[in-house]
Amino acid sequence: MGAAGRDFHNFNVYFRNNSNYEVVALTATQIPDIAGRKYPAELSGPLYPEGIPIYSEEELTNLIREKQIDQVILAYSDLPYQYVMNKASIVLSNGADFRLMGPKSTMLKSNLPVISVCAVRTGCGKSQTTRKVTDILKKKGYKIAVIRHPMPYGNLREQIWQRYETNADLDRYNCTIEEREEYEPHLDRGNILYAGVDYQEILTRAEKD
């Protein structure tokens, strides 16, 4: 269960090459037009040569029953406790286990220092804080790269990893207005920015930058 973000990441780092599991479906909410698509083979890996179907979260109950699902993983945020437990009750009442995945299973290890700018929900000021942090670090002489949480509205095959250095890259990657609002202030500062879906690939490339 996800919103085209943490769910994709959890799959990439834990399930993609894990033959002990068979991932039969992803569900989506919050992101427009994501349901009805597939997590493509270019991202799903050799165990899933046809990709993985993405369904609306509204189909969760039927999916558990029809596909005889053993385990459901919740992998998105901005959710109140009551909502999470309601989803857990739906999953459990239909016979599947309900799971949240923690840092040991999903966190990537970097060879370089990382500053993570997080918040409890959208709109808290992460973007402004990130820009301030980059300004401080550059004044101290550090070479930096910004890695952005994905906004996978377009073709996922073209969003495996993206590197932004100039405003021309915004056109090259067909960025939405929301993405431009996020990326342009960094480009104006001369910051290199990465985004996309496969964060191991993105991290590897950012470390080389």
Topology:
Blueprint: H1 6-15, E1 26-28, E2 38-39, H2 41-44, E3 52-56, H3 60-66, E4 71-73, H4 81-93, E5 97-99, H5 103-106, H6 126-139, E6 145-147, E7 161-164, H7 168-172, H8 177-188, E8 192-196, H9 199-208
Parallel strand pairs: 1-3, 4-5, 6-8
Antiparallel strand pairs: 2-3, 7-8
Organism: marine sediment metagenome
InterPro entries: cDPG_synthetase-like, P-loop_NTPase
Protein name: GTPase
Which features would summarize this protein structure in a list?
GTPase, alpha/beta, 9 helices, 13% strand, 209 residues, P-loop_NTPase, three-stranded mixed sheet
Compact summary:
With 209 residues, this protein is an alpha/beta fold.
If helices are DSSP runs of H or I spanning 4 or more residues, what is the number of helices?
Answer: 9
Q: Strands of the largest sheet, in order across it? A: 1-3-2
Strand content: 5-15%
Let me know the average pLDDT: 94
- Based on CA atoms alone, the radius of gyration comes out at 18 Å
Distance between the termini: 33 Å
Helix and strand sequence: HEEHEHEHEHHEEHHEH
Quickly count the domains.
2
Please count the beta strands (DSSP E, at least 2 residues each): 8
Main sheet specs: 3 strands, mixed
What is the SS-derived class? alpha/beta
Shape: globular
Helix content: 25-40%
Low-pLDDT runs of 5+ residues are: none
Protein name: GTPase
InterPro entries: cDPG_synthetase-like, P-loop_NTPase
